[in-house]
Please model this.
Amino acid sequence: MYDRTFGTEWDELTREEAVRRAFALGVAEGVGNRRPAELDRVMEAFPSAYDRSLVELAYDEGRTKALVAADDADDPKEVWDALVDGAGTPREQPVRAALPGAITDLTLTEPPREGPPSSLNFPSMLRK
Model:
């Protein structure tokens, strides 16, 4: 499944492509098609610990989702199709789902709230 969708003939990967491949490799392992050499190649494409941790998170997320989905499916292809589309893109964003809530709930792209910060408001017990 992984080989048909992605192939193994690549020299360089972007971070996004590596996360997609790592998620798919995790799904493949979850259904019994382990590819440790390909995972090592994807990991070695990035020297920084941050990029490697993203790849590991995506891999773990794919494997976890595949193991959960395999309980309800009869065929490994069903699990693959439920988690990865025909172009190799995960049906859900893998790394966002793998990160803890404190990291994913950051609102850096949202405009600031109007009014004073909530820490300066009166506690509810002091309001009438």
User: Anything to note?
Assistant: The chain is about 55% helix and 0% strand. Residues 5 and 86 are 7 Å apart (CA to CA).
